[in-house]
Amino acid sequence: MNEFVLDFERPLIELEKKIQDMKDFSSGEDIELSQEIKRLEKRAEKLRAEIFANLTPWQRVRLARHPKRPYTLDYIRLIMEEFVELHGDRRYADDRAIVAGLAKLAGRPVVVVGHQKGRDTKENLRRNFGMAHPEGYRKALRLFRLAAKFHRPVIVFIDTMGAYPGIGAEERGQAEAIATNLKVMSHLPVPIIVSIIGEGASGGALGIGVGDRILMLENAWYSVISPEGCAAILWRDRAKAPQAAEALKLTAQDLMKLGIIDVIVPEPLGGAHRDFKAVAQVLKGKILESLEEISSIPPERLVAQRINKFARMGSIVE
Amino acid sequence: MEWFQKVKRGLKIQKKKDIPDGLWIKCESCGEIIYKNELERNCWVCSKCQYHFRINSAQYVQVLMDDGQLMELDPDLTSTDPLKFKDTKKYSDRIKAAVQKNKMKAAVRVGAGKIAGRPLVAAFLDFSFLGGSMGSVVGEKIARGIRHAIEKRCPIVILSSSGGARMQEGILSLMQMAKTAAFLGQLSDAGLPYISILTHPTTGGVSASFAMLGDVNIAEPGALIGFAGPRVIEQTIGQELPEGFQRTEFLMEHGFVDIIVPRSELKEKIATLLEFLWDEQA
Ligand SMILES: [Zn+2]
């Protein structure tokens, strides 16, 4: 099989493969072999803990980009009971880099919006690697307004390297599309739960990311700019991305300390891609908990609290 | 050797002729030599080619506000270095240098004043202060300016000139986009007008938040306005960008700018728009 493996997870993956091979070979009667398997399993467990307990920010960025990582549609499939995708911004086009629609979450109708990356080259071309154009943000905006009209909570999944920097995107007003979403989301009279599931870069992420509760997966990252972009500008060298990742304080733990996110969602040891179902179940639980906390707050107070939440963000000296 | 010295001397003489004692300034666009006082009278616009020189926030206050007066709100708000950010230089050193060079503490001036006799709140981003970038302090000062306008029930004018969010404050800078947009939502709810003036350049996190949200968006001619920077776009798509791409006139053509107004007419136009939009309350 042609598995994608990150350099720092390779020793573990190789050991796991060896164990699996031995298990396949063993009939269960060979005591010596079973003992060897046990021994190797212990070693794998230790190795797993060693590698993943002390990930650098840059390693987390690479885990967040793991091509096998669960994407928005995976979470929708695993968390929601039903999903009807709605297409298009009614202005220009249907941007496949953002999926949106109506769904049921624990029996309750919700509106869902999220960036969607492709699994392979063909799908990535169609979905533009999860990098949205203005029509993607305007499709999201249409769904936010729909949610307000029918009093449905909004569930958002963020996973993007950024809003797409291209000619068409500028012609059709990328800046205006994102700005309008920020203004409308900050005042939307229904609960908004945002989950950062993979990558969260700049205005392209925030453009669907203003909410009452911000959840973040343990190995996701969220920043004003990608580490590569930051390195290119401040260090004049994209290869300095690992340093930039360190400096930007973009991990879930950092963002918790900075008061940006509310919940860190733990991933299985080794990353979300190792067990879709497990991470989806944990995320579902956290989304429901968050929704529970705010669903009885009257709309006016909910909006006031949301504005306050963002008003407090920042660091200044009077 | 002799030839080299000659050229050198020649250059020197020519340079002297160009700008004698700072009284004359050469237009960066057409090369016209302009008398400095005349340029100032003309709001720093070349009288020959209409090139708009980049000016700082203090100069914009002179151009737009009655009697050049702005009662600054929170002039002492200062950036901290919440991430202890260091690239090739420490962020804290960059702030110190910018404060010293610009004789102001942040990349924006926000205050109360009058335009054509109408009381309002005005904010001026300053490109000469770390590229006018928006960090916590810029976001906070804009937000407080909007709140002040709501409290006083008066309009707000924000003049943008910024490369975008301030990277050295990381995610906290990004969140200023949400903060300023949220406060503008409250201003809308209060029924108060917001006039956004986009000058060269207005890009990134500033264009993708308050700068694009004016009830009326005015732009100076020839300004670079967009979300992504032209270099990033060129690198992404691997081709050269068309002439005039992301300039004011392009934005107007695509429907994102209401009016193009030369700097010398800005003040008058703001006054007219406010009169049309809003009845001052006693
Ligand atoms: Zn000129």
Task: Give a written overview of the molecule.
The complex is a heterodimer of chains A (318) and B (282). Chain A has 318 residues and is an alpha/beta fold. Chain A has two domains: 7-54; 61-311, 2-enoyl-CoA Hydratase, Chain A, domain 1 (Alpha-Beta Complex). In chain A, 49% of the residues lie in helices and 16% in strands. Chain A contains 14 helices and nine strands. In chain A, strands 1, 2, 3, 4, 5, 6, 7 and 8 form an eight-stranded mixed beta sheet that branches. In chain A, helix 9 (202-206) links the parallel strand 5 and strand 6. Chain A is globular and about 65 Å long. The relative contact order of chain A is 0.12. Chain B has 282 residues and is an alpha/beta fold. Chain B has two domains: 21-53, no CATH class; 55-277, Alpha-Beta Complex (2-enoyl-CoA Hydratase, Chain A, domain 1). Chain B is built from ten helices and ten strands. In chain B, the strands form two sheets. A seven-stranded mixed beta sheet of chain B has the order 3-5-6-7-8-9-10, sandwiched between helices. A two-stranded antiparallel ribbon of chain B has the order 1-2. In chain B, helix 5 (136-152) runs parallel beside helix 6 (170-189). The longest helix of chain B is centred in the middle third of the chain and has 20 residues, at 170-189. The interface between A and B is large, with 55 and 68 residues. Strand 9 (316-317) of chain A pairs antiparallel with strand 4 (78-79) of chain B, so a sheet runs across the interface. Bound molecules: zinc ion. Zinc ion binds at residues 27, 29-30, 32, 46, 48-49, 51 of chain B.
